[in-house]
Amino acid sequence: MLSKKLLRAMNDQINKEIYSAYLYYSMEAYFHSMNLPGFANWMNVQALEELTHAMKFFNFINERRGRVLIDKAIDAPPTNWKTPKHVFEESFKHEQLVTASINNLVKIAKEENDYASDVFLNWFVTEQVEEESSFDGVLQKLAMVKDQPGGLFMLDKEMAARVFTPPAAE
Ligand code: FEO
Fold first, then answer.
1. Is 88 exposed, middle or buried (0-12, 13-18, 19+ CB in 10 A)?
2. How confident is the model at residue 39 (pLDDT cuts 50, 70, 90)?
3. Ligand 1 atom with least separation from CA of 54
4. Which residue, judged by its Cα, is nearest atom 1 of ligand 1?
5. Domains (ranges, CATH) in the chain?
6. Which residues does a 6 A CB cutoff place in the pocket of ligand 1?
7. Rounded Cα gap, residues 127 and 114, in angstroms
8. 135 CB-side CA count, 13 A
9. Residue 74: closest CA among 23, 12, 15
């Protein structure tokens, strides 16, 4: 059984993952409005990944005989940014907040000697290293490009190549 505290925190994490998807869909829409379809695609794939993160928590809570509660509103994300680089500065910061939230879940699981949750959360600890690295990687490229149209156009082509791979069934 999940403790009340960990169950509440995992239910809150579902909300945070869905908010992340909402934020990245908003960023996708911004990139479409900027005529940067490759960046829009990249954000679409990211949003889909966030929904799979939410469902991982959803399924884990059920497996542990906890009660999933979809009981909080999803906040409205921002809709506008100054530049593509600004989008990635903000999304990188957001991922760092998600990492802190995952680390807090690990802390609770360890305090409660909940080994199964600790093992489950390990996947997210590793995933957050990848997430931060992928956002930061794009940010570094945008810093080099300095929002110049030629560089953005080339980078947009690269961003178009990202594809969503559904996670293997567990
Ligand atoms: Fe689900 Fe991007 O963290």
1. buried
2. very high
3. 1
4. 50
5. 4-71+83-159 (1.20.1260.10)
6. 17, 20, 50, 53, 95, 98, 131
7. 20
8. 23
9. 15
CA of 133 to the centre of ligand 1 (A): 12
| Phi, psi of 151, rounded to the nearest 5 degrees | -65, -40
What are the structure tokens assigned to 65, written together?
Answer: 């005989």
pLDDT at residue 170 above 70?
Answer: no
Is pLDDT above 80 for 142? yes
What are the backbone angles phi and psi of residue 84, rounded to the nearest 5°? -55, -40
DSSP assignment letter at 169:
P
CA distances from 136 to 7, 23, 109, 112 (A): 31, 17, 29, 33
Report CA(11)–ligand 1 centroid distance (Å): 15
CA-based torsion, 19, 51, 129, 143: positive or negative: negative
Nearest to 6 by CA among 126, 136, 120, 105: 105
**Ligand 1 atom at shortest distance from the alpha carbon of 49:** 1
Does residue 110 have a pLDDT over 80?
A: yes
CA 2 to chain centre: 24
| 138 Cα: distance to centroid of ligand 1 (angstroms) | 16
The pTM of this model reads 0.97
